[in-house]
Amino acid sequence: MEPDPIEIPEHLRYRDGRYAFERFGAASADAPLRERQRFARALRAIHRPWFAVRMPDGVAELTTVGRKSGEPRSTFVRAYRDGDRAYLVAITGEQTLWLKNIRADPHVTLRFRGSTLQGIARAPRDDERAAIVEQFSRTHPFDYAENLFHRSGLPNRRKVIELHRAWLEGGTVLVVDAE
Questions:
Q1: How far apart are CA 15 and CA 100, in angstroms?
Q2: Which residues contact residue 106 at a Cβ distance below 8 angstroms, ignoring those fewer than 6 apart?
Q3: pLDDT tens by residue, 65-107
Q4: What is the pLDDT of residues 133-171, one digit of tens each?
Q5: What 3-state class would DSSP assign to 82?
Q6: pLDDT of the residue at 48
Q7: Nearest alpha carbon to residue 142 among 166, 172, 164
Q8: Which residue blocks in the chain are alpha helix, DSSP H?
Q9: What secondary structure letter does DSSP report for 9?
Q10: Is the dihedral of CA 145, 151, 157, 160 positive or negative?
């Protein structure tokens, strides 16, 4: 199946390899590390109780092994399960801490609503790209709320897909194969 021909608007493209929230302008990509970390902590504080009650479609709890501590580390990621495989994206690319943990030890656990996948993360092969785009082009109710947070204006299906495609193009995509 060929993905919809949706172009990513220029203002959604990553700047110097860094993600910028449309809602907060181009300066969000240049925000100091401490400010971005504070923002991420606040976002996790909102997600944890909400996702504990009901994990949205398109989201999974990722558990990695800390590259320095050796301890389990969990966070929520954009991910879709497709049988014995899952696709996920590090929206902020190679600077993402959980991605650095995976680079050190690719064994991960993904907890979706109603299922868990333990596997090994790897880069996608060329023949998997269409399936990844297809999964990230599906829209779910959570995507519209998330889109309000990332983009200006009211969300619609096209804006959700544009945002997800921008993440796939500018972020770092991984495939997790079940062990």
A1: 21
A2: 120, 121, 122
A3: 999 999 999 999 999 999 999 999 998 888 888 999 999 999 9
A4: 999 998 999 899 888 878 888 999 998 998 899 889 888
A5: strand
A6: 76
A7: 164
A8: 33-53, 97-104, 129-136, 141-150, 157-170
A9: P
A10: negative
**145's tokens:** 């709320």
Predicted local confidence at residue 45, as pLDDT: 75
- Two structure tokens written together for 105: 């030890």
CB 176 within 8 A of CB 110: yes
Q: Which domains are assigned to the chain?
A: 10-178 (2.30.110.10)
Q: Which two tokens stand for residue 162?
A: 């544009």
**5: helix, coil or strand?**
coil
Count of beta carbons in the 10 Å neighbourhood of residue 21: 17
> Does the structure show a pLDDT above 50 at 26?
no
Place of tokens 């925000």: 31
pTM score of the predicted model: 0.82
